[in-house]
From TrEMBL:
Subcellular location, record wording: Nucleus
GO cellular component, one term: anaphase-promoting complex
Stated family: Belongs to the APC13 family.
Annotated region (Disordered), positions in chain: 35-54
Pfam families: Apc13p
Protein name (record): Anaphase-promoting complex subunit 13
Organism of origin: Agrilus planipennis (Emerald ash borer)
Recorded metabolic or biological pathway in which this protein acts: Protein modification; protein ubiquitination
One record GO biological process: cell division
Length: 54
């Protein structure tokens, strides 16, 4: 029957205490200006920057 799920084997516990205790860094991340979108883009294409338009 397709509506019944058959689980064969054991499920692996992916979340352990070390994962719970891990913390993301709070440092700022440097992003090159050429990778940012134009904040004043009114044409609907957010991928175009002033340098890419010319």
């Amino acid at each position: 029957m397709d509506s019944q799920v058959r689980i064969e084997g054991y499920l692996v516990d992916l979340v352990d205490n070390a994962w719970r205790a891990d913390v993301l860094p709070k440092d700022d991340i440097r992003v090159p200006l050429c990778e940012l979108t134009d904040p004043e883009s009114d044409n609907g294409d957010a991928n175009l920057t002033p340098a890419a338009k010319s």
